[in-house]
Write a structure and sequence with these properties.
- Keywords: Antiviral defense.
- The chain is mainly beta and 255 residues long.
- The protein has a single domain (6-251), classed as Alpha-Beta Plaits (2-Layer Sandwich).
- It contains 2 helices and 16 strands.
- It has helices at residues 35-46, 130-142; strands at 6-13, 18-19, 29-30, 62-68, 72-81, 103-112, 119-127, 158-166, 169-172, 178-180, 184-185, 201-210, 216-225, 231-233, 239-244, 247-251.
- The chain has a 4-stranded antiparallel beta sheet, covered by helices on one side. Strands 9-15-16 form a 3-stranded antiparallel beta sheet, with no helix packed on it.
- The longest helix has 13 residues, at 130-142.
- The chain starts with 5 loop residues before the first strand and ends with a strand.
């Protein structure tokens, strides 16, 4: 991978829903946006159409990591669905006029833990094309994305905050035990993580990449510490080390 800049930004919002991919009608949510959701978020902000970004934001060209900055909680709640297909504007057809009534479906929502104002996910992005990164940085700094950001569903509006664009980072293999701030691919571990007091490590199987027809082409198991800011472990995969503002962090890209 060429040593191009690493862009760091936050995705924030009051609540989110990151639908699990086991079925196309799952009501369950991941606690954090999977890589495919982040790729779609970036593509939308940059103005890609939904079937145009599979290559540019694919695993080979674009490298994405994510850190959960605010503890999250899950809430199951019923929502009312109305039919929005077919003859929805015809009276009595059961569409927007609600003549056939709503369909109630339970959905799992992600909220910040009590005491926190909003969700906050930190996203780290680099790309093999320096000009592509420059375009992303301009979008983030301008605060004017082509399509608005949201947290998984259009019903969950969000916002992004540009944190840093830095070349003060490196990528390589490390032999020592490190505190990893990002969600961690299970395949990256060379041994069991350190289980200190209160550590709650959760494993989620998530999608990693879609092709241009939005078919799943890669998935993987990701770990995160529900009770803390990092997972301390020894890794066999490459680790990035980055310094920005007052922070110095270690992370692993989702792949």
């Amino acid at each position: 991978m060429p040593q191009n800049p690493l862009i760091v930004f936050d995705l924030c919002g009051a609540y989110g829903m990151f639908r699990k991919f086991y079925t196309n009608s799952s009501s369950l949510s991941y606690p954090f946006p999977p890589r495919t959701t982040v790729a779609g978020l970036i593509a939308g902000m940059m103005g890609y159409e939904r079937d145009e970004y599979a290559e540019d934001l694919g695993l080979e060209r674009c490298h994405i990591a994510l850190s959960v900055r605010v503890p999250v909680r899950r809430v199951m709640q019923q929502v009312n669905y109305l039919m929005t297909e077919g003859h929805v504007w015809t009276g009595g057809a059961g569409g927007f006029d609600g003549s056939k009534g709503p369909i109630q479906v339970p959905l799992e929502w992600i909220f910040p833990e009590v005491g926190y104002r909003e969700l906050r996910y930190r996203i780290y992005v680099t790309h093999e094309d320096r000009r592509w990164l420059e375009s992303l940085r301009e979008v983030l700094e301008s605060g004017a994305p082509v399509y608005p950001p949201y947290l998984g569903m259009s019903e969950c509006p969000g916002r992004v905050e540009h944190v840093a664009s830095t070349e003060d980072w490196s990528l390589g293999r490390r032999g020592e035990e490190l505190p990893i701030s990002t969600v961690l691919p299970a395949s990256a571990l060379s041994g069991p993580p350190r289980l200190g007091a209160g550590t709650q490590i959760v494993k989620e199987r998530t999608p990693l990449a879609l092709d241009e027809r939005r078919r799943l082409i890669a998935a993987g198991d990701l770990l995160y510490n529900r009770a803390g800011p990092h997972i301390t472990a020894r890794l066999e995969s490459e680790v990035f080390e980055v310094s920005y503002q007052e922070s110095h962090e270690y992370g692993v890209f989702m792949q």
